[in-house]
Amino acid sequence: xxxxxxxxxxxxxxxxxxxxxxxxxxxxxxxxxxxxxxxxxxxxxxxxxxxxxxxxxxxxxxxxxxxxxxxxxxxxxxxxxxxxxxxxxxxxxxxxxxxxxxxxxxxxxxxxxxxxxxxxxxxxxxxxxxxxxxxxxxxxxxxxxxxxxxxxxxxxxxxxxxxxxxxxxxxxxxxxxxxxxxxxxxxxxxxxxxxxxxxxxxxxxxxxxxxxxxxxxxxxxxxxxxxxxxxxxxxxxxxxxxxxxxxxxxxxxxxxxxxxxxxxxxxxxxxxxxxxxxxxxxxxxxx
Length: 287
Known about the structure:
By secondary structure, this protein is of the alpha/beta class. The chain has eleven helices and ten strands. The chain has helices at residues 12-18, 85-88, 111-120, 135-151, 156-159, 168-177, 190-199, 215-222, 233-245, 247-260, 269-280; strands at residues 2-5, 25-28, 43-47, 62-66, 95-99, 124-130, 160-164, 180-182, 203-206, 229-230. The strands form two sheets. The chain has a six-stranded parallel beta sheet with strand order 7-6-5-8-9-10, sandwiched between helices. The radius of gyration is 20 Å and the shape is globular. The model has no long low-confidence stretch (mean pLDDT 96).
């Protein structure tokens, strides 16, 4: 009766299948955080905390907002892989900003945000991750950022670092070593922010207009950390700098994360709501 795609858009085969009417009722969720645009997909399953009030206008499908974060999550509870400062190209005393997004998540219009942080934190190191599968994109990102830093009169080799992609234990080791986690502006990372919450790494995130730019802010709001959600680029830069310059501010955020992150785990309410929706949604009699 019902076919639910966890995502559409990340794999060509799923788009081909979803373009056909295989069952009477077809739905998609937010593994790829945008509308499918397909007339063959009837409902889009999102979450209350991801969506602004007028967000139905952003979807071809009928939008369903499941409670809270729209999913039930468990912590990873992994150990930490060995990590030396030299592995990240940093030294003792550096202010380490983890930049965890895939290269395509970094929009050129936000390059200036990193430049502005570097102008105020002279010992900043921005650590990016690179995957062999998308090495050309990583190279392009590094070249573009380097140009932005040079245009501002800054030596990019002092600030920008690329490190290999790591497994969960390795990623957690980096997060534990970092001073600040910089969520990608405009295309937030759900999984990466959840990892940072688990490691109690101070998070700087920006709440934008579309669901894809609201994962980090949704997670912080769910954990009761609304005051740390940035609504402008100026706020984003200021918070990132203050978390380095004002140790008590950073300690307060760490303690707030540790005190609020339990609200993120084991939430059955979205699953109950999904079950209720699937049980009552009208099923067309024919395809």
